[in-house]
What we know:
2 copies of one chain form a homodimer.
Chain A: H1 2-18, H2 28-46, H3 55-60, H4 74-85, H5 109-119, H6 132-148, H7 152-158, E1 167-170, H8 173-188, H9 198-201, H10 203-210, E2 214-220, H11 225-233, E3 241-244, H12 254-266, E4 269-277, H13 289-299, E5 302-306, E6 331-335, E7 347-351, H14 388-423, E8 427-431, E9 437-442, H15 445-453, H16 456-480, E10 486-490, E11 500-506, H17 514-530, H18 534-546
Helix pairs in contact in A: 2-4, 5-14, 6-14, 8-11, 14-17, 15-18, 16-17, 16-18
Amino acid sequence: MVNEKKKAEASLKSLHRIFTVPEAPHSTLGTIEQAISQNLNRFLQDHIIATDYSLTEIEKDFSDANVPEQPSFVSDHTEFLLEKLVAQSVHTSSPRFIGHMTSALPYFLMPLSKIMIALNQNTVKIETSKAFTPLERQVLGMLHNLIYQRDKPFYDNWMHSAEHSLGAFCSGGTIANITALWVARNEALKANADFKGVAEEGLFRAIKHYGYDDLAIIVSERGHYSLKKSADVLGIGRESLIAVPTDEHNRIRIDKLEETVETLKAKNIKPFALVGVAGTTETGNIDPLNAMADIAEREGMHFHVDAAWGGASLLSNNQRPKLNGIERADSVTIDAHKQMYVPMGAGMVIFKDPSLVSAIEHHADYILRKGSKDLGSHTLEGSRGGMAMLLFASLNIIGRQGYELLIDQSVEKANYFANLIAEQPDFELISEPELCLLTYRYVPEDVRRAFAIATPDQKDAIHKRLNDLTVFIQKRQREAGQNFVSRTTLTPNYLDRRSTHVFRVVLANPLTTKAILQDVLDEQRDIAKQSTLAYPELMAMTRRILG
Amino acid sequence: MVNEKKKAEASLKSLHRIFTVPEAPHSTLGTIEQAISQNLNRFLQDHIIATDYSLTEIEKDFSDANVPEQPSFVSDHTEFLLEKLVAQSVHTSSPRFIGHMTSALPYFLMPLSKIMIALNQNTVKIETSKAFTPLERQVLGMLHNLIYQRDKPFYDNWMHSAEHSLGAFCSGGTIANITALWVARNEALKANADFKGVAEEGLFRAIKHYGYDDLAIIVSERGHYSLKKSADVLGIGRESLIAVPTDEHNRIRIDKLEETVETLKAKNIKPFALVGVAGTTETGNIDPLNAMADIAEREGMHFHVDAAWGGASLLSNNQRPKLNGIERADSVTIDAHKQMYVPMGAGMVIFKDPSLVSAIEHHADYILRKGSKDLGSHTLEGSRGGMAMLLFASLNIIGRQGYELLIDQSVEKANYFANLIAEQPDFELISEPELCLLTYRYVPEDVRRAFAIATPDQKDAIHKRLNDLTVFIQKRQREAGQNFVSRTTLTPNYLDRRSTHVFRVVLANPLTTKAILQDVLDEQRDIAKQSTLAYPELMAMTRRILG
């Protein structure tokens, strides 16, 4: 019994040690940190996307649902992580990883992120964040300024005001969109007369009180899937997210938008929010924001712009005009972990009017007391870390002009790639880049000629095989691990709105070279011919049609 | 013009460099990293909570809403951060910082978090996370196992199943609670006959279809404020979060709960969810979960347990019995960034039934395709980082037995402090610790004697002054920067449910010593006497009453 107690005390002592600051720079932890850095540098320099282990094989290393009873040495566990996790993860910062918006990171963020992790501030309240609160408010101010360009007195008045907020930092674009639409819903159904507002009384009583037959949110058919999720969460219903058709450039059709508004009004359905897309996730196109703002103003709709991806382009004075009208939005979503090059978890929603957030304000006794500057009184999330710090550092270290260069060259590179694709006899550009995103597919030259003269039935058959071929190429290329493009489905007008699988490319990594882009196409062409189903079938059809 | 172009090219080249892996260990970034580590170690060793700069002064350093035009050197900006941010932040891991749940971190997480930041995986989909996806699924499995203790075949079947999920990782307890209640709402109002379900059709049509007059969520009056926020976001309305009175131990009163259910049913209001609290934020008490589960089962309510804080105690076999009944919950919220000692941003919701998440499933063309193992198809958030990795590492390195020791000693320390407070003639324990959280206040000995014999009016007057004194002491102590306790408001039965300000203490930091606890009381006693308003007034009243 005495021995047991002594053993427990010894264990506790060694547990205390892990919470104590390691004193010597050459401590065990210091050595482990060096080993990690070297391993990571090696991994990141290898420039290979993934290993050839299948997911099923990897799952075997992560299959035990028991929390281990006994402790492990940090060094042993680090070895496990490096071998089983790091080596089997995706090299998202490779210049050959051009399929998603998850971006390469500037290396100065590695040492700086140490500050964020070690201080472990909780920005929900001043008591656990102190200087991180003014810092976050300043970052939100900078983003507000980037969008709305108000004068100095405006920011002097509102940036640090306890009762106001220029926006909210959050984990990502989805939470940002939900927050914006939550504000919009609560504003549209606010307290009046004896009705205490939707926040207090709920949607059922709110809609009855206002006498509507239902609510709706309007967005183009290219809107991000998070908007459907928002409509579900907020109790609006996915069906009430009304998708308006787009033109040949994937932008919302204003005539169809007007029709939609009229139809809804005729049915006594209140469209309380209109969402403009500034950089669609699938094609990178930007809605006609000014024309949308006109309609939103006229109809009393909250105008939200989902610029999760495209918003970073405001940092370039050369790209800025493409987003004209964004300064008329009531709220804007921007993800800094996309083209602002900071790590995952840096979403933001910015509000034009600093008092708009009062629609979602809440307080509690032990924190978020009225009059405090606690950020948590107007965010969807509660406890949150100090991620704003990394955006703050990047904005300062890269500077606006630095971002301008990075963003401009990504657009130039996308234009270069679009031209390169258009020049190939066997590739087809599906959507031209407006910013640094484009889509295309592989169509053998003969197939293209055959398609042009085929009967409608033959066209359908060819189209189906081309879709199969696109899926085959994308999967096989991803598995080969040299290059990575993503894949989506579009309905191009010139293909009679047939559901069309396409390759999708985002050229945000500054290190992606022209040689890499050429290599991506060459590899896809090679892979196509390895298809034992779609390719031979396509060729047989083509021969029959061309005779 | 040529010169301009050359200059831009040179700038671009230097921008490229920041995305390139630094080659030498003695590179500039390496040196900066060392400087940061040393500075952080100094700051964290100083064991002082905050500096004496006021928030207003700090705000001056964060007041410019312009994104700087020109870039800065990393070294210069780092200096700014160390001086203006780090030095003005809150030392949340100090053993004297015992006011909040934001915890101290084991130091092995510093090097390991480097892996998370550098790899920058996006766990929304396999394509950007690979091994991080099985890892996260395993962590969710471990937590599920901790709560529900199912057998190996269960986890073999469901842990890595594409169509199922044992839970969702998220940024924190608020998102976890919203997710759980979102699932509950969608299950309660699911598709039937020609109705497509609330997710598709929205709340208004759902409630009409089901023929209810309204919905409700039931929780004790000690429920976390995020539940009100959830009720608002989900369209239920804050008023429809029904607060049931608690007993003298801050636990929901089962008799009152039964009454509440009856009253709601009589009004044709559907209580679709019952929330048990396992560790209230303000007093740390645990609801009678088994009795609640009985009622939830009988009434067909979704039973959610908010164990954001208390859930970690399941890692101790000695504390586990206090949470009996949690294994009957349909869903459970646990925050690993509380007593599992990982950095901010590690919330989780765990579901008993692996197919329950289908209530909130969603898909998109370019990601989250049906049949994929993408985690993003059943989370509220979209893009997310690899935070699960740090919990995985901590569970492995500390081990269950290590956590048991940490958690048990925190409870012992709370009991020690409760006894210490009870022994003081001039302190009053308000709520006893059930886990490692307790509340108390300062009441001079004479005041206590006077209160006992005072008239009701005199009691009110004394009570008001004591409240003022509590606020004064807590603020002044925080500002002095040596020790930190938080403050909340309770309505203790023995004080006739008067609104009572109290000190709130969370003893999660393993390095907090008995000497520190004594010091906290001594300092509070000293500060009390410095009050130029509440203290002299209290004393004057006391003299009048005692004669």
